[in-house]
What we know:
Largest sheet: none
Order of helices and strands: HHHHHHHHH
Low-confidence stretches: none
Number of helices: 9
Strand content: under 5%
Shape: globular
Amino acid sequence: AVVFDSVILALGYIYFYTLQKERFIKWKFNFDLALKYIKIGTPLILSDVITLFIMRIDQVMIKELRDTYEVGVYAASTRLTEAWYIFAVIITNSLFPALLNAKEKSELLFKERFRNLLIFLYTVSLLLSIIIQIFSNDIVKLLFGSNFYPTADILVVQIWTSIFVFLGFASTKWLLVYNKQKQQFYRALSALITNVILNYPLIKIYGGLGAAYATLIAWFFGVYLFHLFDSMSRELFWEKTKVISGYFVIEKFRGGN
């Protein structure tokens, strides 16, 4: 879905470019500009690779430390949870131009829009987590059958992980706006290291469920707690803390009274 969205966007740019009667043959390669964008984009590319690695390393380690049945049980849950990640990607990518526009107008407007994005994604992921928590057994039985009953417990842990994944997608846009691409790389790397370290003992003891807990802790540290220790993005930690704690909701009700 993300690739399709990018292709359609690129085709749109090409179409409107040709409408201006511009020609690609007039283009000239600018080495300095290319080097600049490579320097800016490298941390983002690496962080995306690391994120993909985090999403797959669990299954590799489960296969090595347990068996293929555990991999299948875990993979079934992963298929369900990762499908919801596309929703967060689409929302954050769609609203990113609005965030940039707000930043150009005023810092206050940008912070307000970014805060609303955090609140929206947190609310959606929280409601989804509660629903899955209640109906996980029924969902797994309906989609995969009774042989995959252990998937239900893994699904519950993974769906609660989506809260931090959703907040992570939003905070990525904040880092881009403030040109802090290196922080994006560092936090992804910290999440990967945390995940790998925890995977080994937890998978050996609890199997796929242990891998799910390792991933939950890794995302909690990578996209939330990391910012507390990073002075360049500490503001993100406090913004997320206020959203998770319900601070903004309480303040809104107080302001209305």
